[in-house]
Write a structure and sequence with these properties.
This protein has one helix spanning 46-49; strands at 5-15, 23-29, 32-38, 53-57, 63-65, 68-70, 73-74, 76-78, 84-86. With 100 residues, the protein is mainly β. It has a five-stranded antiparallel beta sheet with strand order 3-2-1-4-7. Strands 5-6 form a two-stranded antiparallel sheet. A two-stranded antiparallel ribbon has the order 8-9. The longest helix is centred in the middle third of the chain and has 4 residues, at 46-49. The two termini are 16 Å apart.
Amino acid sequence: MKIQLKVAEVIEAEKVEKSEKLLKLKVRLNNQERQIIAGIAKSYTPEEISGKKVVIVANLKPAKLMGLLSEGMILAVENSEGNLEILTVADSVKDGTRVK
């Protein structure tokens, strides 16, 4: 299976109960909404990530994390200080755009 990277807009974010690492994100991709559970809570608050245009792996098989359905994965890198930085794109890029 070839990985599909696409741009998605984070439209809602909240902490996952009983987890220090996970955020529950609602993203918009091609006019549909998906839920993604991301291990970025130590680097981002829900307020910091809401409204961002991020790059996701769009064709992963849905999986459950802490009992919650995750329908994708956000791409991030670890900076020199060991913190995660999500890959973002300009606001002018439409959600659903394929990353080449």
